[in-house]
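Most newcomers find our protein records easier to grasp once they have seen one. The structure tokens are whole numbers drawn from a learned vocabulary of backbone shapes. The record below serves as our worked example for the rest of this section.
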Amino acid sequence: MYSEFTVPDDEEIFDIIGAWPETQESGARALTWRSGDGALILSYEAVTRSVRILWSNTDGDSLLDVYREGATRLAFTSTPSAVGAQIDFSVGECAGVMEIDISPRIAVRDRLLFR
């Protein structure tokens, strides 16, 4: 069953996390964060319901590179002490969530389970 991928508009993203998404050559939207831990790039494309997380250390070595289709919702959270993102997925008989801590330290948690 098809589910729409709901994403906040650019203004809402800026209001929540203080950054504007950029448009990549492919048409995907991307956000980049840099910290003492390295860099995290979150790119997403609503039409294809796809998300890519690319996390690299300060030397530029890839720590994590995940591409997934079947995204249904992207949401951001921001408090005075932390910024994060949550992406929900639904693919066939599987559903899951990817939680990303952007600051103060980068961390990624991912669960994709049978329903």
About this structure: The two ends are 14 Å apart (CA to CA). The mean pLDDT is 94.
